[in-house]
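Give me structure tokens for this 159-residue protein.
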Amino acid sequence: MTQPEFAALAEALRAEGKRVVFTNGVFDILHVGHVRYLQQARALGDALLVGINSDASVRRLKGPTRPINLEEERAEVIAALRCVDGVCIFTEDRPDNLIEAVRPNVHAKGGDYASPDALPETPLVRRLGGEVVILPLVAGRSTTRIVETLRQPTSDSIP
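Here you go.
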């Protein structure tokens, strides 16, 4: 979806009285940690909208060897999940513009943040009347770890 379409979807959902949850991320190589996280985020409301970092944004954040999968493909995979109601690619390093457009009731993020106050977007979400929820990560499951394992010449399986 384009950002205006994404914002319109959020507005329509709110007009129906639905609780809108927003989250964002790279979602480069989909794994069980992503799936569980997105399911938990969806359980916080009636609809889950997901922002996907653009390829250029991922390179700035993670380095020149990432992403592994192109932004359109990452968005398509996330959009295909039953728990996801809409996806939008954003070009900035932080999702502030999407948060402003969506005005979520809940902004969910993974547990790599100690508390909502550690998340840079929290003041914006709270100013818009939303709440921030930090969800637990699945221990030992990350795209970075998968990529590192695949690069090891003696690796037989992904841990």
